[in-house]
Design a protein that fits this description.
About 0% of the residues lie in helices and about 35% in strands. By secondary structure, it is mainly beta. The protein has a domain at about 5-160. A hairpin with a 5-residue loop joins strand 37 and strand 38.
Length: about 230
């Protein structure tokens, strides 16, 4: 089916397992109950810009073949994008996540844009795969951010981000540049966790959080370690 529900009010909307051909438009739509899109397939663009989800939103295992636009969307309840696949760009700029946000093992083949997004609940990106740039510049994480085991093949951009509840990058892989310029945490550098993180491009432009730097271990492998910043 093709869908244009721009500005619609939808109560307990269920599109689980459906296939939407062409672009699907939900710009400014309001989902008053739960919104279920589990394992839905969007063969064109999926436009949810400015949409409001007042209940829970499920997009687990959803497949977005075209661009997925959730910029300035508001998620009042918890939202699940676990195992979702974004084949093109994913736009979440200035989105507001009031509850928990789960993107565990999601695949972002294009650029993932979360600039200035607000995460009031725990933001989970464990095992997520970012093939393009992962842009979280000036994002706000109020209750913790979990990127354990995530893979960043392109640039990982967290400049100006605020991590009030700490940030975990244990076992994460950075192939491109990592930029944490101006990133802050309320509990100091110890609120960051980079245990067993891997850096495959030590000569790329990296700006780690204050109090952390790149250093070769005993086997000559670059590791992100806690300590005084070296002179740049």
């Amino acid at each position: 089916m093709s869908l244009d529900l721009t500005g619609a009010t939808l109560i307990d909307f269920n599109l689980a397992h459906c296939m939407v051909t062409g672009d699907a438009w939900f710009s400014g739509a309001t989902f008053s109950g739960n919104a279920v899109f589990d394992r839905a397939t969007f063969t064109g663009g999926a436009v949810f810009g400015g949409a409001t989800f007042t209940g829970r939103a499920w997009f687990g295992g959803a497949n977005f073949s075209g661009s997925a636009r959730f910029d300035e969307a508001t998620f009042t309840g918890s939202v699940v994008f676990e195992l979702a696949t974004f084949s093109d760009s994913a736009w979440f700029g200035k989105a507001i996540f009031t509850g928990g946000a789960v993107f565990d093992e999601a695949t972002f083949s294009g650029n993932a844009r979360f600039g200035e997004a607000t995460f009031a609940g725990v933001a989970r990106f464990g095992g997520a795969n970012f093939s393009g740039s992962a842009m979280f510049n000036r994002a706000t994480f109020s209750s913790g951010a979990v990127f354990d085991g995530a893979t960043f093949s392109g640039s990982a951009v967290f400049d100006g981000a605020t991590f009030s509840g700490g940030a975990r990058f244990g076992g994460a892989t950075f192939t491109g540049s990592a930029v944490f310029d101006g990133a802050t945490v309320d509990r100091g550098p110890d609120a960051f966790h980079f245990a067993d993180a891997h850096v495959h491009s030590p000569d790329a432009r990296h700006v780690w959080p204050r109090g952390w730097h790149l250093e070769s271990d005993t086997q000559g492998k670059p590791s992100i370690v806690r300590g005084a910043d070296p002179v740049r």
